[in-house]
Design brief:
Number of strands: 0
Order of helices and strands: HHHH
Largest sheet: none
Helix content: over 70%
Distance between the termini: 48 Å
Strand content: under 5%
């Protein structure tokens, strides 16, 4: 396995764990749908840090993982807020 593949899998794992932590911290009942949706959203938003590798090819894996965690958490929150507002407006 190459280094960029390891970094991508690490970012996916961080996104999953961040989404699971948020779900366990919330008051919403845990349903399979909520579980999988938050894991998917958390994983996808944290992999956005992989775009840093396109801009700075020599960036260290620790930098990429740190940015992945930050973007994963921030992106997940922003996306969830946007979806809740959009759902409210459509009702």
């Amino acid at each position: 396995m190459q280094e960029h593949e390891k970094t991508l899998y690490t970012l996916l794992a961080i996104g999953c764990l961040g989404a699971l932590g948020k779900m366990l911290d919330g008051n919403d009942p845990i349903t399979p749908r909520l579980f999988f949706s938050r894991v998917i959203i958390g994983s996808l938003t944290s992999t956005a840090a992989g775009a840093v590798l396109l801009q700075v090819p020599g960036a260290s894996p620790l930098t990429i993982i740190g940015l992945g965690a930050a973007l994963g958490i921030g992106g997940h929150q922003a996306l969830e807020i946007w979806l809740r507002r959009k759902n409210k407006d459509s009702e």
